[in-house]
Design goal:
Distance between the termini: 85 Å
Strand content: 5-15%
Number of strands: 2
Radius of gyration: 30 Å
Largest sheet: 2 strands, antiparallel
Order of helices and strands: HHHHHEE
Oligomer: single chain
Strand order of the largest sheet: 1-2
Number of helices: 5
Length: 148
């Protein structure tokens, strides 16, 4: 089963909107408060945190569905919550790129750069040696004529 990472932008945005869209719905706000408490290290034992958080999000989704008039089963939510695999892949790649640029900025790594010469500028020098043909234009600037 693929699930959305808790830090995915869409997930976080949706959570932030719960308190706006359901501000006057007491069951949703109570479920949201329980969900947020599940992320506090003083209230959630580390060994049980994933299960506690999973149950809290299911309760929150159930409260939202109830308010919107949808009939959902909590068991279905626990077993069948889905997000596209691309979300997780994109998040992992984005993190790798961020880490690389931080290491470059800190001087721990360098940015690999290569130069590619178009075939138009490559000429054979014989014996499997090649050179780069240079093209230079001379530009002669003449001062503007004086007006009289």
């Amino acid at each position: 089963m693929r699930t959305c990472p808790l830090t995915h932008q869409n997930y976080v945005t949706a959570l932030n909107l719960v308190q706006i869209d359901f501000a006057d719905v007491q069951p949703v706000m109570a479920a949201m408060a329980t969900y947020l408490v599940a992320f506090h290290p003083d209230t959630t034992p580390k060994k049980d945190c994933n299960e506690i958080r999973r149950k809290a999000i299911v309760r929150l989704l159930t409260a939202i569905a109830d308010d919107l008039g949808y009939a959902v089963e909590q068991l279905d939510l626990m077993e069948q919550v889905y997000s596209p695999e691309g979300w997780a892949t994109a998040a992992v790649r984005q993190r790798a790129i961020q880490d690389l640029f931080v290491e470059i900025a800190e001087g721990k790594k360098t940015l690999p750069v290569s130069v590619t010469v178009p075939e138009l500028f490559v000429e054979s020098l014989g014996d499997n040696q090649f050179g780069i043909r240079t093209v230079a234009r001379s530009v002669r600037k003449t001062p503007p004529a004086k007006r009289t």
